[in-house]
Amino acid sequence: MYYGLTWAKIREAMCLAIPVRIVSIDGDEAETEIAGVRRRVSIVFTPEAKLGDYVLLHTGYAIGVVDEAEAEETLKLLEEIASLSEVH
Amino acid sequence: MDDSILLAHGSGGKLSHELVEKKFLPFLANPALNKLDDSAIFEASGRLAFTTDSYVVNPIFFPGGDIGKLAICGTVNDLAMNGAKPLYLSLAAIIEEGLLLSELEQIVQSIKKAAEEAEISIIAGDTKVVNRGQADKLFITTSGVGIISPGVDISGANARTGDKVLLSGTIGDHGIAIMSQREGLRFSMTLESDCAPLNKLVSQMLEVSSSIHCLRDPTRGGLATTLNELARQSHAGIVVEEAQIPVKEEVKAACELLGLDPIYVANEGKVVAVVDPADADKILARMRTNSYGRDAAIIGEVTKEHPGKVIMKTKLGPSRIVDMLSGELLPRIC
Amino acid sequence: MKFIDEYQDSKLARGLAYKIAQRSTKTIRLMEFCGGHTHAILRYGIRQLVPKTVELRSGPGCPVCVTATTDLDKAIALAHLPDVIITTFGDMIRVPGSYSSLQKAKAEGADVRIVYSTIDAIEIAKANSGKSVSFIGIGFETTAPTIAASILKAQQEKIENFHVLSLNKLTPPVMKALLDSGEVKLDGIIGPGHVSVIIGSHPYKFIPRDYGVACVISGFEPLDILLCIDKLVEQIEKGEPKVEIAYPRGVKPEGNRKARQLMEKVFEIGEANWRGIGIVPQSGLKIREKYERFDADKAFSVSLKPPREPKGCRCGDVIRGAAMPLECKLFRKACTPESPVGPCMVSSEGACAAYYQYGTLENLQGF
């Protein structure tokens, strides 16, 4: 019953950027979504981003567009590595 | 009456009486309270449990509840965590001058609803009004008394080696729901606080097993802090599996966005139970028949290794220590 | 969550762990530059997934940790000026300066607010036209473009009460300074994933070329880090150090040109003072003369008492990779997250805070 303890600390994710999906674009800003959470972000650094693209969100700005083809390739590579290890 | 609280509402005079008689009494009515004596009289015999808590949450309205609901559920749950059947609550409100009457009414309605669901009566109350700026809209303190059936012995110190650790559902909902209302965080979601009275869930669990050793609700500090408290009180080690801990996708996403770990985020409608392994499965099954326990899971067990410490086997395989929450006090969430 | 969950798969992690263990014969030392990597390595137990031949050391990639005490003292002094609102990223407020902290200043009546984005700082400036809003600009190349964007926005919208205290720092120059010092012998560097989204991979070419050290850029999920270590081990075992991108879904070799353009428009490169390292030439960003009216350094003058470093604190050593948090006598005793002595224990990206929070069974001994 006694709460001598403190709350969760917001981790200042200064290295981190989260992949969020663009659901609408409004000039320099976009409405994005990740697992049901919506957030407005600035896309001033990613003018090439399109509806449906995933962008990396860092402190309110999209800093890059996620390359989905590369993401696929990486996972394929990891699957191959995993299957090689299973042989042993 | 005007549409907001005035200092005069707290002066003890006519306006004070009007406030109690028009805004509180009609909704919380019960024989003891209706008497409006200086104290409420009741009879009870047996082992009694007694608890108190203050609620200073900001914002006072949040998705899935408000400070009123929180105040009732929080104290009801504290009683339930010792295996007590909650009977009566007291309610003291410190109101900031300027609070809208419509907001106060809404909160009293929440209190009424929560009290009905928990089947408790509020038999004593108090209201005070302070100057603008001296209370953040509304502070509520509730105290509660409950009765413990003979033979029930539930305490944080009772965990034994081999016991299973059960969790009644998804973690992080309340804290994230509160955070989503904070200015500057700019994210929106459909997630609601899990704020709920758990006394019926607990009594159902007690019906199927007499070997429930510990019960605790993981509020501020989250699941991690609660597990550590139990480990320390019982001088036992606890091992949990990250993959077994239920977390909603929205909560995971919000935690990623904010850089939080769900195991440290507050809950207001969950219970951790440490139980005899022989009864774990049937307690789990019973929990799942209650809407507040439908996502219940067995998340770990009590070990004699590393007493007082909590270890988590991560999703990837390696184990790590889960410490108590340490660090900064952030916006009030309960 | 797409592009996150898939990179936490335990089967794929085991596969990588196996491959690395098979390939690694030499004992090697890798440095993860980024605080976010240090945190992830501890949170996901990466050390238990890689063989004992691979040693991991944390580097100076924690923006709060590398802010020099005098710069923090300056921010605290600014906070005490009348009609000034200080806006800052979270962890800065608890770092102890020479005599105080932003949190103490706040308790003494200074207006200090935590923001999550420079966008918030601009909003506060707009809403408080009678006051000056100063943003404490820490961070590396990931954050610098966002700060540049805020200055450009202030200019565009004529928000004259907005200032930035520019403490932004650059990554490749400090890597060079560490490698030059030779204090810690490194075989490879785990490169910062999101800094590299902005700067690309070319700026790291000097690392293998001039120092024979391998450099692989990594994302932040556990599989990303394991893949990066796998590539580093491969390079080092072959004796063929080079710059590689192990995070191709985020990093392009040419980086983000638009972001760099905005940075270069607003900032010019100068020297910077790094805690634990000292002055590193060409490693900091200063606001250009054209935008000097948004420069908090020019807009305000404060007098500072001589800086003091906390006694016994080994934060500087930890930042340079010369010591592990566990080697500091104060760790977990006098220095804890509730009562931190130095910034490495305050910042969630500080190595000491990460070790404190995620300690493994191995470092249970003695505590």
Account of the protein in words:
The complex is a heterotrimer of chains A (88), B (334) and C (367). With 88 residues, chain A is α+β, with helices and mostly antiparallel strands. Chain A is 23% helix and 35% strand. Chain A is built from one helix and five strands; from the N terminus they run βββββα. In chain C, the strands form three sheets. Chain C has a five-stranded parallel β-sheet. A four-stranded parallel β-sheet of chain C has the order 4-3-5-6, sandwiched between helices. A two-stranded antiparallel ribbon of chain C has the order 10-11. The interface between A and C is large, with 46 and 62 residues.
Could you give a quick summary of the protein structure above?
The complex is a heterotrimer of chains A (about 90), B (about 325) and C (about 375). Chain B is of the alpha+beta class and about 325 residues long.
| Rg of chain B, Å, rounded | 21 Å
Distance between the termini of chain B: 30 Å
Strand content of chain A: 35-45%
CATH fold assignment of chain A: SH3 type barrels
- CATH C-level class of chain A: Mainly Beta
C-alpha-based Rg of chain A, rounded: 18 Å
CATH architecture of the largest domain in chain B: Alpha-Beta Complex
Second-tier CATH architecture of chain A: Roll
CATH class of the largest domain in chain B: Alpha Beta
Structural class of chain A: alpha+beta
Summarize the amount of helix of chain B as a percent range.
25-40%
Number of domains of chain B: 2
Total beta-strand segments of chain B: 14
Helix content of chain A: 10-25%
- Average pLDDT rating of chain A: 84
Please give the largest β-sheet of chain B.
7 strands, mixed
Oligomer: heterotrimer
Q: Note the beta-strand portion of chain B.
A: 15-25%
Tell me the structural class of chain B.
alpha+beta
Q: Shape of chain A from CA axes? A: elongated
Please summarize the sheet with the most strands of chain A: 5 strands, antiparallel
